[in-house]
Amino acid sequence: MKTMNEIIQRNIPKKALYVFLGVGLLMVTIGIGSICTAEMLMPDNAAGQRGVLIFYRSFCPFVCVWGAVAAISYINIKFRRQ
User: Fold this and answer.
1) What is the structure's pLDDT at 4?
2) What is the Cα 16 distance to its own chain's centre?
3) In which domain, by residue range, is 63 found?
4) What is the pLDDT along the chain (82 residues), one digit of tens a residue?
5) For residue 68, is it within any domain?
6) CA distances from 32 to 5, 21, 55 (A)
7) Structurally, how many domains does the chain consist of?
8) In a domain, 5, yes or no
9) 30 is a domain residue
10) What's the predicted TM-score (pTM) here?
11) What is the DSSP string of 4-70?
Protein backbone atom coordinates (compact mmCIF):
# COMPACT_ATOMS: atom_id res chain seq x y z
CA MET A 1 0.00 0.00 0.00
CA LYS A 2 1.28 3.46 -0.88
CA THR A 3 2.08 5.98 1.80
CA MET A 4 0.56 9.45 1.84
CA ASN A 5 3.83 10.97 0.70
CA GLU A 6 3.96 8.68 -2.36
CA ILE A 7 0.39 9.52 -3.28
CA ILE A 8 1.06 13.26 -3.13
CA GLN A 9 4.37 13.10 -5.03
CA ARG A 10 2.68 13.51 -8.40
CA ASN A 11 3.99 15.22 -11.48
CA ILE A 12 2.56 18.56 -10.38
CA PRO A 13 5.41 21.08 -10.17
CA LYS A 14 5.80 22.91 -6.89
CA LYS A 15 5.50 26.26 -8.66
CA ALA A 16 2.07 25.22 -9.98
CA LEU A 17 0.95 24.39 -6.43
CA TYR A 18 1.94 27.89 -5.30
CA VAL A 19 0.01 29.36 -8.24
CA PHE A 20 -3.09 27.29 -7.33
CA LEU A 21 -2.76 28.45 -3.72
CA GLY A 22 -2.45 32.12 -4.72
CA VAL A 23 -5.28 32.04 -7.24
CA GLY A 24 -7.50 30.10 -4.83
CA LEU A 25 -6.96 32.64 -2.05
CA LEU A 26 -7.54 35.52 -4.47
CA MET A 27 -10.81 34.01 -5.69
CA VAL A 28 -12.02 33.35 -2.14
CA THR A 29 -11.26 36.96 -1.26
CA ILE A 30 -13.12 38.20 -4.34
CA GLY A 31 -16.13 36.00 -3.58
CA ILE A 32 -16.38 37.12 0.03
CA GLY A 33 -15.86 40.74 -1.03
CA SER A 34 -18.69 40.42 -3.54
CA ILE A 35 -21.06 39.08 -0.90
CA CYS A 36 -20.09 41.88 1.51
CA THR A 37 -20.54 44.47 -1.24
CA ALA A 38 -24.00 43.11 -2.04
CA GLU A 39 -24.97 43.24 1.63
CA MET A 40 -23.83 46.84 1.99
CA LEU A 41 -24.95 48.37 -1.32
CA MET A 42 -28.21 46.61 -2.22
CA PRO A 43 -31.32 48.60 -1.31
CA ASP A 44 -33.28 47.51 1.74
CA ASN A 45 -36.43 46.42 -0.07
CA ALA A 46 -37.77 43.18 -1.57
CA ALA A 47 -35.84 43.53 -4.82
CA GLY A 48 -32.60 44.32 -3.00
CA GLN A 49 -33.01 41.36 -0.67
CA ARG A 50 -33.66 39.13 -3.67
CA GLY A 51 -30.45 40.41 -5.24
CA VAL A 52 -28.50 39.62 -2.07
CA LEU A 53 -29.98 36.12 -2.07
CA ILE A 54 -28.80 35.63 -5.66
CA PHE A 55 -25.31 36.76 -4.64
CA TYR A 56 -25.28 34.20 -1.81
CA ARG A 57 -26.51 31.43 -4.11
CA SER A 58 -23.87 32.11 -6.74
CA PHE A 59 -20.83 33.11 -4.68
CA CYS A 60 -21.04 30.62 -1.80
CA PRO A 61 -20.36 27.59 -4.06
CA PHE A 62 -17.72 29.72 -5.82
CA VAL A 63 -15.99 30.38 -2.48
CA CYS A 64 -16.25 26.73 -1.40
CA VAL A 65 -14.76 25.35 -4.62
CA TRP A 66 -11.88 27.80 -4.77
CA GLY A 67 -11.29 27.35 -1.05
CA ALA A 68 -10.99 23.61 -1.63
CA VAL A 69 -8.49 24.20 -4.46
CA ALA A 70 -6.41 26.43 -2.19
CA ALA A 71 -6.61 23.95 0.71
CA ILE A 72 -5.58 20.98 -1.43
CA SER A 73 -2.63 22.85 -2.89
CA TYR A 74 -1.55 24.00 0.60
CA ILE A 75 -1.72 20.42 1.89
CA ASN A 76 0.33 19.20 -1.08
CA ILE A 77 2.97 21.90 -0.49
CA LYS A 78 3.11 21.05 3.21
CA PHE A 79 3.57 17.31 2.59
CA ARG A 80 6.23 17.91 -0.06
CA ARG A 81 8.43 19.78 2.43
CA GLN A 82 8.75 16.69 4.64
Assistant:
1) 59
2) 16
3) 14-81
4) 666 566 556 667 888 889 999 999 999 999 999 999 989 998 989 999 999 999 999 999 999 999 999 998 888 887 766 5
5) yes
6) 33, 17, 10
7) 1
8) no
9) yes
10) 0.76
11) HHHHH--S--HHHHHHHHHHHHHHHHHHHHHHHHHHHHS-SSHHHHHHHHHHHHHHHHHHHHHHHHH
